[in-house]
Amino acid sequence: GKGLAVFTSGGDSQGMNAAVRSVVRMGIYLGCKVYFIREGYQGMVDGGDNIEEANWSSVSSIIHKGGTIIGSARCMEFIKREGRLKAAYNLVTRGITNLVVIGGDGSLTGANLFREEWSSLLDELLANNKITKDQREKYKYLHIAGMVGSIDNDFCGTDMTIGTDSALHRIIEAIDAIVSTAYSHQRTFIMEVMGRHCGFLAVYTALCTDATYSFICEDPAPNNWDKKLCAKIAEERKSGQRLNIIIVAEGAIDREGKPITAELVKKVVVDNLQQDTRITVLGHVQRGGSPSAFDRILGCRMGAEAVMALMEATPETEPCVVSLDGNQAVRLPLMECVRRTKAVAQAMADKNWDLAVQLRGRS
Ligand code: ATP
What we know:
Residues 4-309 form the Phosphofructokinase domain. This is ATP-dependent 6-phosphofructokinase. Substrate binds at residues 150-152, 187, 194-196, 250, 278, 284-287. The protein has helices at residues 16-29, 40-46, 81-92, 105-127, 133-138, 164-185, 200-209, 225-238, 262-273, 293-312, 334-349, 353-360, and strands spanning 3-8, 33-37, 51-53, 96-103, 143-150, 162-163, 188-193, 213-215, 244-249, 277-281, 320-325, 328-333. By secondary structure, it is α/β, with parallel strands linked by helices. The strands form 2 sheets. Strands 1, 2, 3, 4, 5, 6, 11 and 12 form an 8-stranded mixed sheet that branches. It binds adenosine-5'-triphosphate.
């Protein structure tokens, strides 16, 4: 059978295990020899036990677990050609020419570069007598399929990334818990949620929790946000509301691009309204816990589609990323999505927020 390997890279997210499981089982079902690569690109560069053949039962009892059981890492060596040469050797000598990468835009960019260089990497290995002429010929094409695992929902091309829905569940559970204590003491709570470059979690959280206000990066707060915020809180309290929830995304900014932090918001509320105000930073709790039903299904569907894409690939097929588009798993050109994602970041750096939102598209 064809050699196929799956790995997770960059930040972890809930639902990655469902995706890994699906890739392994779909691969085996279609007659492939399937491998795990542990610790992302680091395991690919280091080889040895990091690359291990998987069987049907090696992915039993993982679908409900958060994070990634095969480990994830950032790997400086893979950014250099020397590291990629080692990785190519480790794959060719195991007959692996199909890769499923589950990660963020950095991981996908690395996979694309690896594929572009594949031929020249094999030439170098042959010239150094590391591989045989037969191996050079037999494994001359590398195929890539990607999936995005990220709680931020920050990738262009897909309606949802794997992990976002679970993170939302985690955040909402935490806020629901805080609401009851805030109610008892008539407090204002400022909740900091993840999302450095994408306000999706903050906006959806605000909608789900009856929050008074939310601060994000794509829609910077107006110049007089402090007055508007205090007026809204005061008005709500006057009408009988006993608490207020304010959501601040990590990357929240004002119109000048200056950060709006939870501390700053707290100072504004305390100085102007003298309210009992507390901050809760949810941090990595958002990335933890078991994946939601949605993320388990998303991982399953995307994993199966990724393997089918690889099995149908011809030498001309470009690397794809499996995306969710209106509840359909679809294949999109990987680099086009990565470029769009990077263009969004650039537009935000240029303070062109309208362009950023337009580039990001539907979700
Ligand atoms: P997250 O969104 O969680 O940060 P990511 O995949 O974008 O995920 P990165 O740290 O950017 O996270 O990338 C993960 C790994 O992918 C890097 O440590 C590196 O090994 C590899 N990688 C990233 N960019 C490149 C690149 N341009 N060339 C080669 N490899 C890369």
